[in-house]
């Protein structure tokens, strides 16, 4: 989950990963299971996909899939899903189709899969057609859009502070702005707001699987895409061929253990505040251990650099640097920890500019242009999914007390992540069909769960929980940094993911991997499988 607005998800960057032979591994086993009674959507014909070259990049194919708005009423209103495909580069050795969800929620797959295409392991790109889509309510699909035109959206954005509110006046403005956003969304399409849950999208995913001619699902989901994958696995347990879940959301934290009465906001339940604080501390310590030439914000030692950051944020509370307020800076810091290279060095340069009283340039947009027109991606799209699917406290007046509690344990990151879910306090719609478990239905084949130890959004403990709750799942530990192993290169992780997706071979129990490069360090030789189990080294 990446937040550029309060709850809008954005992921980017890429890396190429090599393939190595693995030993001491487990082959996927398991027979198909009967459909879950009362779980899967009623049987309807698969949508037809009208593939054609994408308008902005002919290497990709685009299509539109018709879906029922309400899968329980397939004869009712329909919606459109925008779908994108990049064909396997080695057609003679093609395995099938890999469906990819880029997270968010709110991540448009038609944009983010192409932007991150080079991040997929080389053998995966060779052997699979990679398909993604803009989930219902998002991007180029039938989208939640609560404004008449972009000018209205910009006017609304100006009514609340960047990052999170500071002080009573800003808190009131924030709460009023998001209450008004919810009212506008309800007025424009209240029916759509009730049908953008994770379960709704899981049913769409199964229809897409059928439309692509796949008997079983091969899937990679990152961040929010992990809770989507876990939901699918328990609604359609007999349809799993391979399921990779990278940077996980603990299912029972997302669903509030099935209860509608939430005492904590979603991101405090999932531990996003704590893991962001731990990752920030690691960023500052590694920066301080490096030279200023490698990390511009370095003060010479880890402790001095942590003190420097604290001094900077205190100063920004009283003396913003142009539009760079304390809250905007903290929001930028948390989001910039997601992708280590080049994100951490660029963040250090912005912090140093602020230290010197200069307004830095904002983080650069992804360099890879998408093959489709970039869609509107307003805050209301992520809000519709999170607020409709994951319970949150309903009293906005209580958010400040929750913020102070989070700040006491997680510092500045606690403030950011508390207010990230505040829009849900006044959101007008919840899904009647949200999935709340169970999470341990035996699947046709077990899942591969990947967790990164210093992840600023989804803590490693969530990956441990996901691996424990999903039947037969295997955990792969990435002793690295950033949000998702896919976007933060580790040849070792890529090797394991490739063998699992292509051949159905799980890593050995307890397998661990290292990143290809440590933050703020000179390039090191790139190793293969770090399991002690006889893996081979990747190319240098």
The helix-strand sequence is: EEEEEHHEHHHEHEHHHHHHHHHEHEHEE
Q: What percent of residues adopt helix (DSSP H or I)? A: 25-40%
| pLDDT < 50 stretches | 9-38, 528-540
Beta-strand segment tally: 12
Q: Assess the beta-strand content as a share of residues.
A: 5-15%
Give the helix/strand layout.
Elements: E1 26-27, E2 52-53, E3 61-68, E4 78-86, E5 96-101, H1 109-115, H2 122-127, E6 128-133, H3 150-157, H4 168-193, H5 198-211, E7 217-222, H6 224-235, E8 240-246, H7 251-255, H8 266-269, H9 272-288, H10 302-318, H11 326-336, H12 343-355, H13 379-389, H14 399-410, H15 412-420, E9 448-454, H16 460-469, E10 474-481, H17 491-503, E11 505-506, E12 512-513
Parallel strand pairs: 5-6, 5-7, 7-8, 8-9, 9-10, 10-12
Antiparallel strand pairs: 1-11, 2-3, 3-4, 4-6
Helix pairs in contact: 4-13, 5-6, 9-10, 9-15, 10-11, 11-12, 14-15
Would you give an account of this structure?
By secondary structure, the chain is an alpha/beta fold. The chain has 17 helices and 12 strands. It has helices at 109-115, 122-127, 150-157, 168-193, 198-211, 224-235, 251-255, 266-269, 272-288, 302-318, 326-336, 343-355, 379-389, 399-410, 412-420, 460-469, 491-503; strands at residues 26-27, 52-53, 61-68, 78-86, 96-101, 128-133, 217-222, 240-246, 448-454, 474-481, 505-506, 512-513. Helix 9 packs antiparallel against helix 15 (412-420). The chain is globular and about 60 Å long.
